[in-house]
Every structure is written in structure tokens, then in C-alpha cells.
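Reminder to self: C-alpha cells first, then the designed residues, so the page reads top to bottom the way the pipeline ran.
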């Protein structure tokens, strides 16, 4: 690496040790367990730390001068040069100094979730970018960072499941409520018999009925309150960010032999959505796809977004699995429909509740990859849909 610390002036303080050469600095950087990759404004790799060699499976010698996009899966791979030139032109920082959860690609072709932070430095007249990469498949920090996201997701899934179940629960409760009311009315009519025993029995029965009625009513009310508290927060959010985070989550502890390809339409990135809820949808669909391909020889997932009619964006998650079982195809989005031994059969009904709540639609069809394609639509925040209020 050619960074000379003489260029990194730090006032006139006298330090006990002077890092006089790039070699010193290099020796220190190589002790850092995370990977560090330094690139120039053309995306060419200037330095690749020992941690990076271990993480990606390339040696520094192989990569010096190569484009850093080699380390990225699609679509970043094709678009990275554009990201740098857009930053150099506009000065708008989308990642520098912010950091994000995304995916990287090893020499073997396998993709893995990373936490990426980027810093910018001026070395003499030149500008360089240093990327610090933490592999989230193993790191402890993953646990913390993903734990937060997962907790949020679990919360949403509980609320969405409650939403789905609310209708049937309300229906079930209404039946005993009606029966109780009838019973109370019958009791009232029996009051014509003025014998003390009948009156005592009827009084007891009536107060029992009344308190049961109240309790049943309270259950319904509590449930309703609970669901409405979980109301979503629709905001203008970046679909690519949602997809990147959700696929990083799905890849953690996931099957690394699954090849995930992402192809997002850049012109329709902003959608009107609750980020956490839509992540939940994508995560459910990705997990289902991975589970469906358990015994498949070819395991591919494609995540695609494209502009759809009437101000919507369509997201597709396609897999190369066996396709839908005829037994479930008709009632796919109903709760408790599952072909899995330990499946709850709630995932797709939650997806359905969430997407419908966003004004979109979700459906499935055979996929060109040989398995199933799930499609859902979201409102394009820049156009606004005809259905949006
Ligand atoms: P669960 O995963 O608990 O079974 P879901 O509602 O998520 O519940 O899925 C319902 C059923 O739909 C699954 O059991 C499975 O049979 C089918 N299914 C969902 N996704 C796929 C897919 N990508 N490929 C094939 N079948 C699928």
C-alpha cells in the first residue's frame, strides 16, 4: 500500500513513534480482523488487507488494480462504477460515513451478508475510499444488529398474524355472545315464576351471563385495540435498501449454496411502505424459497423489481424449487395452510395481510427458473397509484 503517513499531517505534535512509511501502517492494518479495501476514484483496488484476503479468498496480488466490483454480487457489481461517479459529481453521500447492511461475493461465488462502512481520505492530491467490511455470517455484532431487526420483524409478524386471526376470533366470539343474550332473555321470561328458588337460580344465572357477556366483549375490544396500535407507518422508502437488508437477514444462518441474484429497476426505487413490514414479506418469501429448494439440485433465487401499471412497482421473488403443491395452490394465502411437518402456515397469510394493507396485491405463478414466482406490488412513491388516497 502506498499511503505515506507524512501525507497525513496531524499538527506538529511530537509522537514517540513515527509511522514513517506505508509499511508501518500496513503492518498495523493487517492486525485488524475486519477486512479493509482501499480503492481509487475509478474503483481500482489499491490495498487489500490480510483480513480481506481471508474473508474473500483472494490474495492482494491478484486484486491490485482490479475493479472492486469483483467483490460484489449483481446488481451492485454492474452499478458500482456509476455509484462512485454519481458521488464524485453530486457530492451526495449515500453510503460514505453512513454504513449499511449489504451483501458481498467471495471468490467461490458464494454471497454473504456484510456490514460495510466507507471512509474517504485525501492522500496528497488523490482521493481514495477505504471500505471496512465485517462478515455478518459469523460476527457477534451480527447477533446484536440483526437481533434488533429480527425483534422488530417478530413484533410485526405477531401483529399481522393477529390481524389475520382477528376476523375469525371476532366471529367465534360473536356466537357465544348471541347465545348469552338469548339465554338472558329466556331467563327474564322465566321470572314470571315467583317461587323463591327459581328467582334465586335465575338471578345467579343472569349475573353469570352478564359477566360472561362483558368478558367476551372485552376480548374483542382488547384485540381490536391491540391491532390498531400496530398500525403501520407508511413512508417513502428505498426498495433496494429494503431488499438488501431482507436478503442479508435471510442469508444469515442460511444455506450458502443458494445463489441469490438481485435485479432492481433503479428508476422506481422509492415506494410508499412500512419498511419493517415489507422486509417481513420479503424475508418470508425468501425463507419459503430456500425451504422449497431443500432437495433441489439447482438452487437459485431471483429478486426482481420493475415498474407496473397504475403507479405501482412490482417485486418478484422467483426460485428454482419444485413449484407449488397442488394441495395448497388454491388456498395459498389462507392461514394455517402448510405442507411442512412443522409449518404454521402463517407466513403467506401474513404477507397477504401486509401487502393488502399497503394497497398492493400478492400472487404466485410458475417461475421461469422452474419453481415458483411470488409477485407483489407496492405504490411507487414518485408516481402515486390510482388507488392511493
Ligand atoms: P409455512 O411456511 O409455515 O408452511 P406459509 O404460509 O409461508 O407457511 O406457506 C404455505 C405453504 O405454501 C408452504 O407450506 C408450501 O407448501 C407452500 N409454499 C410457499 N412458498 C413456496 C415456494 N417458494 N415453493 C413451493 N411451495 C411454497
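Designed residues (389 positions):
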Amino acid at each position: 500500500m502506498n499511503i505515506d503517513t507524512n501525507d497525513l499531517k496531524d499538527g506538529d505534535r511530537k509522537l514517540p513513534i513515527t509511522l514513517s512509511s506505508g509499511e508501518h501502517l500496513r503492518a498495523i492494518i493487517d492486525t485488524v480482523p475486519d477486512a479493509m479495501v482501499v480503492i481509487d476514484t475509478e474503483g481500482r483496488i489499491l490495498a487489500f488487507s490480510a483480513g480481506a484476503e481471508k474473508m474473500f479468498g483472494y490474495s492482494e496480488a491478484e486484486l491490485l488494480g482490479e475493479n472492486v466490483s469483483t467483490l460484489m454480487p449483481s446488481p451492485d457489481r454492474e452499478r458500482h462504477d456509476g455509484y462512485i461517479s454519481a458521488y464524485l459529481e453530486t457530492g451526495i453521500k449515500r453510503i460514505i460515513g453512513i454504513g449499511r447492511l449489504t451483501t458481498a461475493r467471495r471468490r467461490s461465488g458464494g454471497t454473504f451478508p456484510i456490514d460495510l462502512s466507507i471512509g474517504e481520505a485525501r492522500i496528497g492530491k488523490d482521493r481514495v475510499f477505504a471500505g471496512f467490511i465485517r462478515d455478518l455470517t459469523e460476527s457477534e455484532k451480527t447477533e446484536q444488529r440483526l437481533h434488533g431487526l429480527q425483534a422488530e420483524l417478530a413484533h410485526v409478524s405477531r401483529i399481522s398474524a393477529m390481524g389475520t386471526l382477528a376476523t375469525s376470533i371476532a366471529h367465534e366470539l360473536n356466537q357465544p355472545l348471541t347465545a348469552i343474550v338469548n339465554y338472558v332473555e329466556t331467563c327474564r321470561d322465566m321470572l314470571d315464576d315467583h317461587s323463591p328458588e327459581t328467582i334465586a337460580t335465575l338471578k345467579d344465572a343472569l349475573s353469570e351471563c352478564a359477566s360472561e357477556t362483558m368478558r367476551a366483549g372485552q376480548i374483542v375490544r382488547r384485540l381490536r385495540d391491540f391491532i390498531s396500535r400496530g398500525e403501520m407507518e407508511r413512508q417513502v422508502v428505498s426498495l433496494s435498501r429494503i431488499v438488501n437488508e431482507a436478503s442479508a437477514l435471510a442469508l444469515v444462518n442460511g444455506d450458502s449454496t443458494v445463489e441469490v441474484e438481485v435485479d432492481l429497476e433503479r428508476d422506481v426505487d422509492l415506494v410508499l411502505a412500512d419498511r419493517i413490514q415489507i422486509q417481513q414479506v420479503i424475508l418470508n418469501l425468501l425463507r419459503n424459497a430456500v425451504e422449497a429448494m431443500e432437495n433441489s439440485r439447482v438452487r437459485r433465487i431471483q429478486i426482481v423489481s420493475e415498474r407496473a401499471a397504475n403507479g405501482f412497482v412490482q417485486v418478484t421473488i422467483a426460485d428454482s424449487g419444485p413449484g407449488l403443491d397442488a394441495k395448497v395452490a388454491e388456498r395459498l394465502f389462507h392461514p394455517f395452510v402448510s405442507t411442512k411437518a412443522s409449518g404454521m402456515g402463517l407466513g403467506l397469510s401474513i404477507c397477504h395481510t401486509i401487502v393488502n394493507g399497503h394497497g398492493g396485491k400478492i400472487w404466485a405463478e410458475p417461475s421461469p427458473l422452474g419453481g415458483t414466482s411470488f409477485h407483489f406490488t407496492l405504490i411507487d412513491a414518485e408516481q402515486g397509484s390510482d388507488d392511493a388516497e
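Residues 1-11 have pLDDT under 50 and may be disordered.
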